[in-house]
Amino acid sequence: MNDLYSTDVLSPEEGSTTVEYAIGAVAAAAFAGLLLVIVQSDAVRAALQGIIERALSI
Length: 58
Fold this sequence. Notes:
mainly alpha, 67% helix, 0% strand, rod-shaped
């Protein structure tokens, strides 16, 4: 019953950890999207294919 009339005040930083995780998740998704665009380019694809073919021919 005392919880109903509690005078506890929330800290100004309450919930900041959740926001930090959300910002980190959005940044990671954006970085993954950028890497996907870069890796799908013809120049990078050709370079990766050359590296893999040289590695398999040894």
